[in-house]
């Protein structure tokens, strides 16, 4: 089947779907499924805009609300993960995944589903070491800290995914797995994005948690976004035994969804021709959720996941075939995900703007039903309960944090270096631009340009690429033009050449006080996002 993969959507659903429809009209190529690798921006109203950790100049309503209200319908089944520019209050309603609109499915904090026999997994958010071991404690209304920490990856989601044993066909993450740039044309990447050089050379660009998952899951495809540049890599995995067959992952990072950007990719994926056209639960994943339910944490306390280190009575939460069989029996072997989308918030009305609408903590009926069916903890209900009892230590109450592991014993060393090369104290992924300070008023929101008067642009086929059957990418810097050759080989179909070139960027050195890393990070964000204003 044909699968379309998109990078950062940034709420431009109309643009994304129009591009797919144009592809069908001109080339008779109709994808069966669309995957989006984060920054989807499922914004329903003005309150949702307040929950996006972006400067006011980037808070625009865009067009998702039209699909939420039913005014429009997605022309293809769409599955997405969260990034770091999301309406976090909306996605938080669905920690285990669910429908944000008809035919638009969110995978949750982490999740695995099936479509036509193809196993698709993903993890939402971006990695930050200082929040990695905390629970999902945040709830709206957010403050200056929790509006960011709400989308930071947690160790429990990585731990759950590492319990999977069965092969994964496709996996999505928003930020790149750390070190993946060493398996593609790194020289070409740094030629396009020279401000990545210091992080690439120090091996601090990307997520160490995603890298760990990549080495464990070894999916056939891994798709990412976040850095607003297209990059392909090919990673040959080491085998653990002589009996194990060699595995390799084809990695692809996508650009953001804007005119004249290469943001969309079409790939052919082997599927089960006898499988139905409905999105389905994955039985092993459901069994893992049940097995790890006791590990759910909704406090700010830092917990390490169970390890085989003498401190935990149990550390292996992978599931048996019997446990998977029990899940199938519970569902009467009907894995179809119910189409139970429900409106949980008022929808934006362009004729009646409500700029002072406040976000509220909502319990979504989809999550309630899912948790009741499989005997899982409703994370939002647990947070709400803690608030009501006055015993919660999350966003709604201040208090000192305790460093505890999952057994309640003293803190164990974190699995990752919390220094993170100076990046953990400064968030490079939050669009910190010179004219937009970190202390801006997060209550400010804008709905301009109105979706009824969108910026004018014509759909261009510079936005689409057809991926070749083989992604034979050389290791490291073998060829300057490796990415270009990759797109031309194996029957790759480039519909239209890009019409714009990358801006040249002036490197900024460090000052006498050693602030080079902060300047470097600001420079990276300026370069990544400055093009957005130009494209508009």
UniProtKB/TrEMBL annotation:
Superkingdom of the organism of origin: Eukaryota
Transmembrane domains' residue ranges: none
Lariat debranching enzyme C-terminal domain sequence ranges: 235-380
Keyword Zinc: yes
UniProt entry tagged with the keyword Zinc: yes
Gene Ontology BP annotations: mRNA splicing, via spliceosome
Residue stretches of biased makeup (Acidic residues): 431-442
UniProt main location, coarse: nucleus
Compartmental location: Nucleus
Annotated spans, Disordered: 385-536
Comp. bias (Basic and acidic residues): 385-396, 485-510
One of the record's GO molecular function terms: metal ion binding
GO cellular component terms, semicolon-separated: nucleus
CDD domains in alphabetical order: MPP_Dbr1_N (cd00844)
Biased composition (Polar residues): 415-427
Cofactor(s) in the UniProt record: Mn(2+); Fe(2+); Zn(2+)
Keywords annotated in UniProt: Hydrolase, Iron, Manganese, Metal-binding, mRNA processing, Nucleus, Zinc
Entry similarity comment: Belongs to the lariat debranching enzyme family.
Protein name: DBR1 enzyme
Source organism of the structure: Melanocharis versteri
């Amino acid at each position: 089947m044909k699968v379309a993969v998109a990078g950062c959507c940034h709420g431009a659903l109309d643009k994304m779907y129009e591009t797919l429809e144009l592809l069908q009209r001109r080339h008779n190529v109709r994808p069966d499924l669309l995957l989006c690798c984060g920054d989807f921006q499922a914004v329903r109203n003005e309150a949702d805009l307040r929950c996006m950790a972006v400067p006011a100049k980037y808070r625009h309503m865009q067009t998702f609300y039209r699909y939420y209200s039913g005014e429009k319908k997605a022309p293809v089944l769409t599955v997405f993960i969260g990034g770091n520019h999301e309406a976090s209050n909306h996605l938080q309603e669905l920690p285990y995944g669910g429908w944000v609109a008809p035919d638009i499915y969110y995978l949750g904090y982490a999740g695995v589903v099936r479509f036509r026999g193809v196993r698709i997994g993903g993890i939402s958010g971006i990695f930050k070491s200082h929040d990695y071991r905390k629970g999902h404690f945040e709830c709206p209304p957010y403050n200056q800290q929790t509006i960011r920490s709400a989308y930071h990856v947690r160790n429990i989601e990585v731990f759950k995914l590492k319990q999977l044993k069965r092969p994964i066909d496709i996996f999505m993450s928003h930020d790149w797995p750390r070190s993946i740039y060493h398996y593609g044309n790194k020289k070409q990447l740094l030629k396009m994005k020279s401000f990545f050089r210091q992080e690439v050379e120090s091996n601090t660009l990307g997520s160490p948690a995603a890298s760990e998952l990549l080495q464990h899951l070894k999916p056939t495809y891994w798709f990412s976004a976040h850095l607003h540049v297209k990059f392909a890599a090919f990673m040959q995995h080491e085998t653990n035994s002589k009996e194990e067959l060699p595995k390799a992952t084809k990695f692809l990072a996508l650009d953001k969804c804007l005119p004249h950007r290469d943001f969309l990719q079409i790939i052919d994926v082997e599927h089960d021709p006898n499988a139905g056209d409905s999105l389905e639960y994955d039985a092993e994943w459901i069994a893992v959720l049940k097995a790890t339910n006791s590990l759910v944490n909704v406090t700010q306390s830092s917990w390490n996941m169970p390890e085989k280190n003498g401190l935990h009575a149990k550390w292996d939460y992978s599931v048996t075939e019997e446990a998977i069989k029990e899940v199938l029996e519970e569902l009467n072997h009907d894995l179809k995900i119910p189409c139970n989308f429900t409106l949980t918030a008022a929808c934006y009305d362009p004729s009646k703007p409500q700029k002072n609408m406040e976000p509220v903590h909502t319990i979504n009926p989809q999550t309630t039903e899912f948790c009741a069916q499989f005997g899982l903890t409703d994370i939002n209900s647990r947070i709400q309960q803690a608030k009501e009892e006055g015993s919660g230590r999350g966003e709604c109450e201040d208090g000192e944090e305790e460093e505890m592991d999952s057994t309640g014993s003293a803190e164990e060393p974190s699995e990752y270096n919390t220094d993170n090369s100076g990046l953990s104290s400064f968030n490079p992924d939050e669009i910190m631009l010179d004219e937009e300070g970190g202390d801006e008023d997060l209550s400010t929101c804008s709905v301009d340009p109105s979706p009824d008067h969108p910026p004018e642009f014509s759909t261009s086929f510079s936005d689409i690429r057809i991926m070749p059957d083989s992604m034979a990418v050389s290791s490291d810097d073998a060829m300057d033009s490796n990415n270009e050759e990759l797109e031309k080989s194996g029957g790759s179909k480039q519909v239209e050449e890009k019409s714009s070139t990358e801006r040249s960027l002036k490197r900024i050195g460090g000052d006498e006080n050693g602030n080079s890393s902060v300047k470097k990070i600001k420079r990276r964000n300026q370069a990544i996002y400055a093009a957005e204003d130009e494209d508009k």
